[in-house]
Amino acid sequence: MENTTYIALSRVDVLSRALEVTANNLANANTDGFKASKELFSDYLVQQKDVHGLPGDKEEVYTQDRSTYQDRLQGALRQTGNLTDFAINGEGYFAVRTTQGVRLTRNGEFNRRADGTIVDGSGNPLIDRNGNNVVIPPRDHTLSVASDGTMSTETGRVATLDLVTVDNPNTLVPEGGYLLRPTTPTRNVANKEIRQGMLESSNVNAVSETTEMVEIQRDYDLTFQLIQTESTRQSNAIDKITADPTT
Question: Do the Cβ atoms of 161 and 134 come closer than 8 Å?
Answer without folding.
Answer: yes
